[in-house]
Amino acid sequence: MKPVERDKQLELLDKLLSETAQGHGHVALLDGSIASGKTEVLHAFGDRAARSGALYLHASCHPAESPVPLGVVSQLLDSAPLRPELAARARSLLRDAAALPIGPACGPVPPELARVLHALSQVILELSASAPVVLGVDTVRHADRASLDCLLRLVRRLRNGRVLLVVTDDTGMLPSGPPVHSELLRQPHAHRIRIPPLSQNGVRQFLEERMDAERARTLAPAVHDAGGGHPLLTRVLTEDHLLSGEPRPQGFGATFVSCLHRGDSMLLRVVQALAVLDGGAAPAELGQLLGTETGTVERTLRSLSDNGLLNGVEFRHPLARSAVLDFMGAQDGTELHRRAAQLRQEQGATATTVARHLVAAGRGQSVWATGVLLEAAEHALLDHRYEFAADCLRLAHRCTTDERDRATIRARLAHAEWQYSPSAAGRHLTPLTAGRGEHLDRGQNLALVRKLLWLGRTEEATEVLERLRLLSSGDEHTEESMALRDAERWLALAHPPLCRRRQPAAPADRRGPLVTPRIEPQLQVTALLADGLVHGKSAQLVDRAEQVLRELRLGGATRWGEEAALTALLTLVQAEGHDIAAEWCDKLLDDAQGREAPTQRALFAGIRAHVALRQGDLPSAVRFGQAALTYLSHQSWGVAVALPLGTLALAATRMGDYEDAAKYLTRALPEAVFQSWYGLHYLHARGHYRLATNHSHAALADFLACGDLVRRWGLDNADLVPWRTSAAEAWLRLDNQDQARQLLHEQLGRLGNERGRVRALTLRLLAATVPPRRRPQLLAEALDLFEAAGDRYEQARVLSELSRACYATGDKRRARLLFRHALYVANRCEAGPVAQELLAVNDSGMTRAGSAPDSSEDIASLTGSERRVASLAVMGYTNREIADRLYITASTVEQHLTRVYRKLHVKRRKDLPVGLWADVSKKTA
How far is CA 641 from the centre of its chain? Predict the structure, then answer.
């Protein structure tokens, strides 16, 4: 393949060859960067020279072969078709040279060897008697000393010879000291031919040879920007884009580093220093970092830029810098980062900048390092860069010898690691607990209790709590005692068995004591909201919960931010502000996306799934629940894993996905789950799964276990789970209406005005225990309450039962309307079992009572388009909604329905057979 953008260089070489053929020999140096295509041009010219009748001799130099005397000359003569007598003389001369001493590297050539080298150059000159001779020597800097001396003797005699010597090298990237080829360029008949990087147009031509022209034009600017027109990098970038659509570390990155390793050692060191200082460093800074003169650095940077490897003092692509850092030796990297930290500290750089170098070096180097690391960690925590904060704190902990400081740093480290891996942070809790908390303040010890309880380490948490209680047994008005009292109020909700004190219900407007620097405000509001939930006062705390969410601050020094957010959201849910809770969850999730905080994302996704379940949005409940388990590992979820697992199991049960529900319920749980409020939701979900799969006795046991726990814990007023209505439903399945009625009347007696959803659940089930004529009234009230609460799933269930109740009382017209509405709502929330139950009941009697016959033959006569339109009409969609879903016009919908009515022999939409829906319900959900 012809080299791209190398026509001028080849034309000049052709001109030199023409003059050589006339008896005027020349020397040409192809000068270009490493892998710039010099060898490609040399070979292309050699082929052209051979086709023109010249004799082309080639030798390739390599550092490993430079100690071999006359290795290059041997390669040249081996590639020549010598006459027998000339070949014999050349072999004899080479044997003679091998037996002679070479002499010192920089000294004169011994006389005996000089005579042999002169004779060898004469052999090459004799070859040009019959045809011009072209000698191609690739990478001449690596030629052995004897061969170089021989070539120099030959060059001095080329003025009137027919020999053209073409060598390749890079004058900008040679080792220090006199260049090997300076003698060649000193000759009057010597020429330096530059091999520059490719232009953007040249890159485009290169790409067009490997892909279609349109893609080549689009890709050329990006490839030229990244590779600077460097031929080798251009080729590798092309391959990367063809393979994966972008530069790859194992492609472009590795090749970039290999180019540096093939050059001068200074070239590699300068680029490594530039990578460590993150680009943009001045030459003086690089020189100071390397202990090298600024002029040397400037020359190296200029050479790198000229050859397309750098753009001034910037990397052309981020992958180039990362590759340099990745391939840097551990010792080199440690030393460079250590010196860079010292340099930046002396320049007055920010703590974060200095700390990055300290962390990369893996060790502190003086007294100031610990302070810098701690300051950088605090900034990182405020910016939600928790992994970097943990790196700083980990190194600071190793650099510190004072035990109190080490404990404080370890507690901070546990907080940072907690944000992305609670299970990993757990390894720090045992040393903190084992130290009896004597080096931690009260707030740090309370945060330690929260983490231990999350991970299910109840015994350790109890030990810390008892120690704190003992220390606070004196004056209850101290800041420490007030903080512990707030923690006890939180425990009463989150982990009731560990709570010692039962506080009276707090008024809704309680603001608590003035906040002091030693009292964490988010612990106070968590305690306030938790207390309201425990005493069933969530409706009175809605405004405070929203205020907490508006003023929420996560990260930094706060240790109770996530718990405050969770308690506030739970307050909104229990107050039946589901839409408000969903909006706040979505906002918190959006905010958390830009942070390195999977723990926050997991927690907010878990509570968002719970909210969606309460709204009857079953698909969203599954989606958010699965996301919650994806953001955080099962181990990191600790006891709180019961919340997403319970939500997923209940949502899957309501959708009829019983296999999925069983999978969620068979996952291993920490033993401490059932000592927290998370366990109540899990037991409640498991009970409904068992009820749906006809294990009514087991379901009843789960619901009664929930009741036993909430009463024992004093949470019966909180109504975290409606265990009485669920147990009553199980009793009804077991055909024990007396027990069910007793529980339902007990539940009605405990309800306040704000608990509309629980009242609706109670009325729906109570309707099954009264005569048929009384059922519509109870169910209608339940329907209004569920609509106000926004629970679509329960609306579908009530509509279904109300439809059957109306049918039983003879109101068949209303029964059909309610049936269609129930089917529509069940479809919207993908409640498969409810929809199937509706169809089964309808097919058994309601259709025959007034709806058109479900004629399979008539339905089969419908076209696919007509069937889709009719199916959506059966489910209750309006013409406009059908048009939007099927991407057709409302007029087209009307035309389809007119034909459907005619084929099915009906006059109105409400007379369409429900069998149209049965086989497409899931597809159109």
Answer: 22
